[in-house]
Write a structure and sequence with these properties.
It is a single chain. By secondary structure, the chain is mostly beta strands. It has helices spanning 64-69, 161-168, and strands at residues 2-15, 19-23, 38-45, 51-62, 76-83, 92-99, 102-109, 118-120, 127-130, 141-143, 146-154, 187-196, 206-215. The strands form 2 sheets. Strands 8-1-13-5-6-7-9 form a 7-stranded antiparallel sheet, with no helix packed on it. The chain has a 6-stranded antiparallel sheet with strand order 2-3-4-12-11-10. The longest helix has 8 residues, at 161-168. The relative contact order is 0.27.
């Protein structure tokens, strides 16, 4: 089994409704601007209402020029964690790691270890989808009722940081309508997994979080 440990980015939420998100565009110094920096985590019900969709965005604030050369780091594992019995420990994981222009996905499966250390199955169960190049039509893979995507996308998160600064400083009482999108024109690298709810289990509410981990 391949071992990976050291959490260097994390984002978490509880999924009970149709859509929730967690955002962290300004992160700790050790990961800000790096290949493991998580900007957003989204979890929502799919267009097919029998499915759930998990989205991890990393390497935020990419300009169009930088996006053309941006790559997923082959030393960084992206791990979606799913707690379906509310004990705050992952019962299932979906993992993604890049190799030679493809993103390889594992799971969902019950991990043999939890917490800081992760392993990758060596049973040939992984599925690889080509990373979509910048500006190209999305390459979407499918296997066993699941769908997969990896590649650059426009940053969907909206935040007016300038106005936020004015509010914090006491110079403004609220946000403008419309506001100015600080992230307009910037991109992220996205990893997307759509999975049937029947593979997740649970009683209707799950806790879910995403981590990036580096090989040691």
């Amino acid at each position: 089994m391949k071992k990976l440990k050291l959490i260097i980015g994390t984002s978490a939420l509880a999924l009970a409704g149709l859509m929730l998100l967690a955002a962290d565009h300004i992160d700790a110094p050790d990961v800000t601007g790096g290949s493991s920096d998580i900007t957003d985590f989204y979890a929502f019900q799919g267009e097919n209402t029998n499915n759930l969709v998990f989205v991890a965005n990393i390497q935020g604030l990419l300009s169009p020029m930088a996006t053309a050369s941006a790559e997923f780091d082959e030393n960084v594992l992206i791990e979606f964690n799913i707690d379906n019995n509310d004990d705050k420990v992952e019962d299932l994981v979906i993992q993604a790691i890049p190799r030679d222009g493809k993103m390889y996905f594992f799971g969902p499966y019950s991990p043999s270890t939890t917490g800081l250390t992760s392993t990758l199955p060596q049973d040939g169960s992984e599925y690889g989808v080509s990373v979509t190049p910048y500006g190209a039509n999305a390459i979407i893979g499918s296997k066993g009722g699941m769908q997969f995507f990896a590649g650059p996308r426009d940053d969907p998160f909206f935040m007016d940081f300038a106005q936020y600064g004015e509010i914090i400083a006491g110079n403004a009482g609220g946000f403008n309508d419309p506001g100015a999108d600080t992230f307009a024109g910037t991109n992220v690298l996205s990893v997307v997994v759509e999975v049937p709810k029947s593979m997740i289990g649970g009683s209707g509410t799950i806790n879910t979080w995403v981590e990036t981990k580096t090989k040691q």
